[in-house]
Design a protein that fits this description.
With 76 residues, the protein is α+β, with helices and mostly antiparallel strands. It is 47% helix and 26% strand. A four-stranded antiparallel β-sheet has the order 1-2-4-3, covered by helices on one side.
Amino acid sequence: MHLVRHARGVMVGWLPEEIDELQARTSGPHTPGEAGTELAGLYHATGLALGAALRGAGFTTETQDDHILVLPPPPA
């Protein structure tokens, strides 16, 4: 995952190169279609969990493509 400063907050998303390297080091051979399906599921599940955790901590989140825009909590 990576963080990028955004005008309205912070954008959180995946770095595909890191995921591909990690998979190559930690798992056995896969067919190309199988690996893509597994990673898509991993991205989705992790995004849902991260979004829920951030909202639970008081942040507002917006989904933009495959990234999550994290907005700071409103002033008290």
